[in-house]
Fold:
Amino acid sequence: MARSKSPDPPADLLGPVTGEVSWFCCGTAWGPCSSTGKGACGTCNSGSLQHAWPNTSDACWAITRPDSCGVSLSRRTCGFRHQITSLCGGGSVVTAIADCGPQTDLFCGERSCCGATCASNRLIDLTPAAYSQIASLSSGLRPVEISTA
Structure:
């Protein structure tokens, strides 16, 4: 018998999760980014240590659907802080939620590796300033562990 997935977002993140991280541009021009919108929270800036989270609201959850990839992520709202630790060398950065995303359901099963260390499913997008704390922007995707800060 197939397991059905709950239509409701999970209530809490019980522990760290592993997944892929990517980066995105928002706010004022910075590094490789031109000026763009300020994100779902209205505070997003490419030069700040911020991130997009796929479960910031019911509307965000309806778009991103990480549960479609078999991943449960807690509801966290604007300003909540996560610690993102690279599985490729161990560097970490603490960032605050400033936007909704990534659209995880479009990347189910996507996998990034460094050597034999891999993670699947794009779960978090960092601003370029935050991503550059744990990896080169040219790498595009990296496996990470995400925990509460």
Helices lie at 58-64, 128-131.
